[in-house]
Every structure is written in C-alpha cells, then in structure tokens.
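Holo model, flavin-adenine dinucleotide. Inputs:
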Amino acid sequence: MGLLIRFAHQWVAGETMDDAVQVALEANRRGIHALVNHLGEHYHEKAPVEATVQEYLRLVAKLRAADVDGDVSIKPTQFGIFIDKEYALSQIVPVMDATKAWGRIFWVDMEAASTVADTIWIYEDLARRYDRVGLCLQANIRRTGADLERLLPAGARIRLVKGAYKETPDVAFTSRAEIDREYLQHLDTLFANGKHFAVASHDGRMIAHALELSQQHPDVPFEFAMLQGVRDPLKAELVSQGHQVTEYIPYGPTWLPYFTRRLRERPRNILTMVRSFISG
Ligand SMILES: Cc1cc2nc3c(=O)[nH]c(=O)nc-3n(C[C@H](O)[C@H](O)[C@H](O)COP(=O)(O)OP(=O)(O)OC[C@H]3O[C@@H](n4cnc5c(N)ncnc54)[C@H](O)[C@@H]3O)c2cc1C
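Output:
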C-alpha cells in the first residue's frame, strides 16, 4: 500500500489540507492558478456529506488565509445528490457562499451520466445566486451539445472535459474518435458563444485546436486546465505564451477511485507504476 500511495502522489497533493495548500502555492509560484478538490464521492449517508461541508468551509478559509491564487471544485455525490438533489443543494450553498465571500469561482465537477440532470439542476440554482459558478460538461455525454446550447446564452461558465466515467452507448459516445470529434465541436461552440470557459484536456490535438480558435477569437477569455502531475512542461509552455493555466489539485485520504480513473486513462501509467515498484 505504501508504494501505491507514493505512486498516487503524482496526481494527488496528499492526504491533508495542508498538503493541498502547499501544492497550490507551489503551482502559483509556476504562474499556475490552483483548483482544489477534496477527494470523496458516492455518499449515501448524511454524516460524510456534512463532514465534507465542514471540510470545504475550512478549506476555503485556509486557501484564503494563505492567499492562494485559486478556486475550489466539488463533486455533487460528495454533497448528497444520491440522497436527494434538494438536500445536496442545501449542503452546497454554504460552501458556495464562503467562496463567494472570497470572490472566487465555485466549480461543480460532473460525475457519471446518471447524475448529469440533477447536477445541472443544482448548477442552475447556484448560478442564479452567484455569477461566478462553473460547471463541468463532458464531451462523451450525448446531451452535452444541447446543454451547451441552452446554458451558454445564459452566460454559463463551462469546463469542457472528455469525461472520466465509463458509460453506455445509450447516453454516451464510447469510442475515442467520437469523443474527440465531439470535444473539437464543443470547442468551436465555446469560442463562438462562450464568455469564459476552461479547456480541460492534456490532449495535444484538443489544445492545438483551442490555440487556433483563440487566434480567430482573440477577445474571448478562456483558460487551459490540466490535472496535477500531468504534462507539466506543456503547462509551463502555455504560461510562457501568456495563457491562463489552471491545475486541478485533489487531496484527501480517499484517493483510490480518483487514482484508478487516472490509471485507466493511460495504460502506460500502469507500466510506469509497475516499473517504479520493481526499482523500489
Ligand atoms: C482540470 C480538469 C478537470 C476535470 N474534471 C472532470 C470532471 O469534473 N468530470 C469528469 O468526468 N472528468 C474530469 N476531468 C477528466 C477528463 O474527463 C479526462 O478523463 C482526462 O482529462 C483525460 O482526458 P484528456 O482530455 O486529457 O485526453 P486523453 O484522451 O486521456 O489523453 C490524450 C492525450 O493526452 C496526452 N497525455 C495524457 N496524459 C499524459 C501524460 N501524463 N503525459 C503526457 N501526455 C499525456 C497523450 O498524448 C494522450 O494520448 C477533468 C480533467 C481536467 C484536466
């Protein structure tokens, strides 16, 4: 287990809030904006949800006290969306209010397809309360095109990702070619109709297309967003070209599901992990 934790550390700041603050400050020193997430998901009981609320309130206070250049991002299943969407909203609002008092963006992650409708319902309620709320949308999900069409005219702040969850063909595109095609099309939509959004990908093709579009739409503000521990040289290059780059920094003791998603995305990572175990 110790070796696994060591390997996981490339993608996870550590188990404690202090670890996350240190990694966020370190990102800031490299000219990178931090996006901090407390790991945890799929809660069906109120106790872990309410502990999560307290954790995030402490996190916002700590990031603020440390003067971190950053925002926070939450997962709806961490806040009780499986219990009831109204209950989840009631738990999220205090954290959003604390983020609002800090003047930062409050981001909502998107999880598996079964949660998309309720997550968008929560997002829309939050967006009526605070104009700096962001929502992640996934290119692999079939309904995303229609969601963008509906949400962008209302000024939605979107983070576009490919989608990290294994889905079925009735709700999602499942081949890499289809997902990439969707991502590229959604980028066109965002640059044409979006006001502020995050291009969240490590894929050189997606990034090159965003760079091309940004030349055609020089006044459209957007940022690149990547995960902690992935493509650091590319992050530095984009920063040196004057782009805003954000790093998603997760922390907490329940890092295993997040770690597993990262391994699955890039089978080469499994090989690297095995090699690092053998060499100690
Ligand atoms: C900021 C951020 C927030 C996210 N939030 C969510 C969310 O809320 N919900 C959700 O479902 N998903 C989220 N994701 C994950 C996302 O959905 C993808 O699973 C993940 O980003 C991998 O997709 P990709 O676009 O990087 O492309 P991939 O198709 O995984 O990778 C494409 C290419 O990128 C390059 N690459 C990837 N990793 C590396 C590496 N380590 N070193 C060098 N090259 C590499 C390789 O060339 C690879 O072929 C988020 C991702 C980011 C960056």
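The chain is about 50% helix and 15% strand. The beta strands are 33-38, 70-74, 106-108, 133-138, 157-161, 197-200, 222-227, 244-251.
Archived with the compound record.
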